[in-house]
Design brief:
Blueprint (H helix, E strand, L loop, with lengths): L3 H9 L2 H4 L11 H13 L4 H9 L5 H16 L6 H4 L5 H17 L1
Helix pairs in contact: 3-4, 3-5, 4-5
């Protein structure tokens, strides 16, 4: 049996809802990063607040922040991301164009 199955089941049943740091860790291990990102999402009310919770867990903060950003970005949309953060993106126009194209494709599916 795959050892990840149990860990994924824990996350799927809401482990991130009742655990707190230091049990929640933002490590480079994908399962822990996912749990940490979901924890930050569950314990915040805005993209900014959750992102800061995620990266301030430490360890592999960029991985946890990236996973959080994907989940929260899908939930809050681009307008939920602080403009001061969006305005500093390298290749912002390319990112926005690609996102628009992906969204259009998803609408047709």
């Amino acid at each position: 049996e795959n050892p990840m199955v149990g860990e994924i089941n824990e996350i799927a049943t809401g482990s991130f809802k009742y655990r707190q740091p230091p049990e929640i860790k933002g490590t480079g291990y994908v399962v822990k990063s996912l749990e940490a990102a979901l924890w930050a999402f569950e314990h915040s009310s805005s993209f900014r607040e959750g992102c800061l919770l995620a990266v301030n867990l430490g360890d592999d903060a960029d991985t946890t922040g990236a996973v959080y950003g994907q989940l929260a970005g899908a939930f809050y949309g681009d307008q939920g991301i602080p403009e001061s953060w969006r305005s500093r993106l390298v290749k912002r126009e390319l990112i926005e164009s690609t996102a628009d194209q992906l969204f259009a494709l998803a609408q047709r599916a």
